[in-house]
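so my prof wants the structure for this chain in the tokens format not the other one, which i didnt know existed until like an hour ago. anyway here's the sequence
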Amino acid sequence: MLRGLSGKPGIVFMVLAMLDFGLRPAVAAQLAGVSLPDTQTVGTTQLQLNGIGLRTYSVLGIHIYVAGLYLQQPSHDAEAILASPGIKLVQMHFVHGVGVSAMRGAWRRGLTKNCVAPCVLSQARLAQFLAALRPVKAGEDVSIEFQPWGAEAFYDGVSVGRIDDPGFARLMLEVFIGKNTTVPQLKRQLLGDGPAAG
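here's what i got, hopefully its the right format
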């Protein structure tokens, strides 16, 4: 939810190791000194990195987090991704600490902006989600798994709450890649349509 990076483009790919299965080289995407794996596994489902982007804050371009969008099948089509019942994952590696008030404010603004008629934002669901948030320190990872039944959030791999509501889960993903996202550059990066910079 925060964005940008100046300098040379891109996702820099590098060979890290040989995977046990198939002995294929594991490729990681790197941005702003942060590496994200090219695949993630949710349950028994393997997801592929669709795009990686950097969220910055203010005109100073303060780096907040590097995010990766993982899908079962890579796609540049935001609407198709949002409509798909397939499992999805957004992983964020924070390079700057964010207080709980700022975190809740950013999510509230993003969810509200993306919930346009006929969407009705459930205040009960919103309160449940915001209550699960906590401060994030530099170096921590926050991830959100999107499932057919809803979504579950994790801080450094530990579940902090789940929303059993597919509509609200879609709205959460729209904060990143929806038509009314507050972070259009990050959206382009996650969709693989723009340079991993800006």
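also thought this was worth mentioning. The beta strands are 12-18, 25-31, 34-37, 39-42, 45-57, 62-71, 88-94, 141-147, 150-155, 158-163.
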